[in-house]
Design brief:
With about 170 residues, the protein is mainly α. Helix content is about 70%, strand content about 5%. It has a domain at about 20-135: Arc Repressor Mutant, subunit A. The model has no long low-confidence stretch (mean pLDDT about 85).
Length: about 170
């Protein structure tokens, strides 16, 4: 095999590794996340980083414990604790003693945290409007519907049922 043949084979293999569904999904998610992040920066939240979305996406409604949050986010309690301390220091969250179990601590949004969530929801709507404009509303809706169907069929363990049922 010549050097040229080996180089061609390497290019082909690299193309197969980088040009697949996983990569497409990652690139789409990365673009989505970056657009939301840019809008949050513009709205006065420059200290919020994409990893923080893991916490807010898994808080749900009401107070939640660190162990539950780490489990939902599929990260260690140590990693979750570190992110929580950072968001607490930045004024987005507070931890309080759980009224039903005095040994446990609850995590709650502060007023600044609630403002961030509202700004995030607005930013998400703007990003989705941009995608609808660029890709077409029908295409975006079909993509979301098909992705929900595939995820439902695969029976992912850590997603709420509402994620596959639609909004």
């Amino acid at each position: 095999m010549t050097d040229r043949d080996i180089a061609a084979q390497n290019r082909e293999l690299a193309n197969h590794l980088s040009n697949n569904l996983g990569r497409l999904l990652k690139e789409f998610a990365r673009d989505y996340e970056n657009r939301v992040q840019d809008l949050l920066n513009q709205r006065g939240h420059p200290d919020i980083r994409p990893p923080h979305s893991t916490i807010f996406a898994n808080l749900g409604t009401g107070a939640v414990r660190v162990t539950e949050l780490a489990e939902r986010a599929q990260v260690t309690q140590q990693a979750m604790g570190k992110m929580l301390k950072e968001l607490e220091r930045l004024g987005y969250l507070e931890r309080a003693v759980d009224g039903s179990d005095r040994r446990a601590r609850e995590i709650r949004l502060t007023e600044r945290g609630i403002s961030l969530v509202r700004d995030s929801l607005q930013a998400i709507q703007e990003v989705q409007a941009y995608y609808r404009h660029k890709a077409g509303a029908e295409n975006l809706e079909a993509l979301e519907t098909q992705l929900r169907g595939v995820i439902s069929s695969l029976q992912f363990q850590n997603l709420p049922d509402t994620w596959t049922e639609g909004r």
